[in-house]
């Protein structure tokens, strides 16, 4: 069984008492200036998305008498001196180009208490979390102008009755990607433990990912070709969230479904992504086998294979993501062997060259900042490269640090990969999945039906007939 947790699992109910939201401003003077976002930052999809993250910390007897709310709020204020644009507000230029007005107005902060212990969240501390809307209050982030003139970040610190606490946040995605958010949080944690400043100082340099002069789109970008809606994508469907664990034995079973040379030459990420894209598509029960579906893999220009030359500065905390995509028809993806999906799943990373990054920025500048084709897409964001557990405000490392759900609002096809050790001590990957409720049941049946096959008892051809 690879399903660890779903929104249909038995859940606890608890109450959270919140203080009114307050604005936390930088602890010292900061420049009042306008700073342009890059063309990679300023994408339509990132404009509508506040990236959610949550951390769970157990009670730490050595910190008795210290209040995590006070410690984190004070450290946040000091960190904002260095990350002062995050305390500002977005503005639009004459052509709609986003910029940050560094007003030092501050970020939204909520102090809260919950009548629940950490143990009550279960053995495997993973999304979906019960009462998640209570852990990160849906305060009105937007002004009447949408993201313009609105706070760029919301943080809630919730004390638990066991002495532990939960740190949850949402960040306007035009300001940071996951790597940038991690740099900021790590800086807060370092200051909370007495540092005068972050060990890695933040760097703006958004011009490095602005369009060239003149802008020249040199690559194909199917990820920005919009598609029509389908019935299942209506906002009326009920979203279901789940966490699936894939350990070594599951990956081993998947490799047995591939030709030997392909199994040996493929990374765990590629094998798992091919399998999940296929299963995700099958679970949605598309009626037209000729319907095109997309796989997108987020690739970060800070890292190989598309690392820029010269590389982005170490403290760069803006968006450095591109979303290279491959396209298949439903009939081909679900009707061919897993090796077909695997060969396709390797292509996004190969396409994500330095030129691809610049071509994406040029596309934004010349095509009016188009939105990603989120409909009929399976989007994978691999967070395994980040040392997410390496955050300590004084209470030790978090038991969980990552997104608190998959998907983007009513669009289900965004999944995150996280490194994880389950309650049995097995190391592997947890995948956060969001699907319509009926499709989630089919998805679970699909993956368990395949992974429960004992490859040593059946010939490969017999297994393939089940795929």
Automatic annotation (TrEMBL):
UniProt keywords, alphabetically: Transferase
InterPro entries, per the entry: CAT-like_dom_sf (IPR023213), Plant_acyltransferase (IPR050898)
Pfam entry (one): Transferase
Family indicated by similarity: Belongs to the plant acyltransferase family.
PANTHER family listed in its UniProt record: ACYL TRANSFERASE 4, OS05G0315700 PROTEIN
Protein name per the record: Uncharacterized protein
